Amino acid sequence: MKINWNYIKMFVLLGLVIFLFAFSSARNSARLVSSPQIKFVGENNLFITNENVSKLLIQNFKGLENIPKETLVLNELEIALKSSPMIKKAEVYVAVNGTLNAEIEQKTPIARVSTNVSYYIDDDGLYMPLSSNFSARVPLVTGFVEKNNLKNIYIVASKINNDEFLKKHVVEIHQGMDKFIYLKLRHCQFLVQLGDVSSIDKKVNNLKAFYQKNLKEKTLDSYSKVNLQFDNQVVCTKI
Asked: What is the per-residue pLDDT across 96-146, written as a single tens digit (0 to 9) for each?
């Protein structure tokens, strides 16, 4: 009987590949995880520290160093990180060398509520606590503000955050009990009465036109109130 050496070589090679794969998988599974490496992505890297993130990871896995890779449940660690009111997005993964990595994107505050409690409103309109590490330079929110009803404040704060003129000049957003909005501008004595948040783009354009005209004429200090509630006009109250 003639021996087919090609088949024998193929089976030997296949067995070797299976053995090496199994050996590599077993060794990789047994590899111990090192202390977490934290990387912050995005522009806002000031409100939560590496130490804060490491504590969150450790608290939710009761010590991450020197444990086998396969015992980690990365999805649970990501959920634990996202539960922090400072964190917007989180991705956790283990590198081939056993290093545990966490990529963190922090929330972006666009306004700071200062009533009986203080907190930020982030760029998604959600609650964000103050940070002991850094204070953001954003408009102050005063008046009648409910933590579970931030829609109107968010619309105005978002408009301010995305408009260079408003971002430069608006220092305070005030909401009355009737939900009407008032703005205070930097270096100006008058109060801007925005009213409700309808037609906000048109109202802001009217404010810009009023401001530029009176800045040129040096009459900005002549007014105590600027009312933008009426269509296509600005109603002013002189001092």
From this structure: 777 778 899 999 999 999 988 899 999 999 999 998 888 899 999 999 999
Kind and range of the H or E run holding 222: none
Cα three-residue angle 121-196-116, rounded to 5 degrees: 40
What amino acid is encoded at 183 in this protein?
L
User: In whole angstroms, what is the distance from residue 35 CA to residue 189 CA?
Assistant: 55
pLDDT in tens, 74-103: 788 888 888 888 999 999 887 777 777 889
Structure tokens at 217: 């004429």
Residue 147 has which token pair? 């933590």
Separation CA 61–CA 74 (nearest Å): 10
Give buried/exposed letters for 75-84 (b at 16+ CB in 10 A, else e): eebbebbeeb
pTM: 0.77
